User: What shape does this take?
Amino acid sequence: MLILSRKINEKIMIGEDISVSIIEIRGDQVRIGVDAPKTVKVFRQEVFDAIRAENRAAAESEPVFPEFDFGVKRDSL
Assistant: This one.
């Protein structure tokens, strides 16, 4: 892990397209801004973990296919 020190209004560059800016420092909280292309998804860790858990649960669940009625009686099949 790379650890960097930054002050308010200073940035960290990730590649050429992503910048992380320090917006505000208040007590034990730091507000940051992330500037990235729209194709890059940016999430807080807890949101990312919840999305990943939901995707795993969906992938492991049994698919449910509703019965369709196309006007054909089952007895005639």
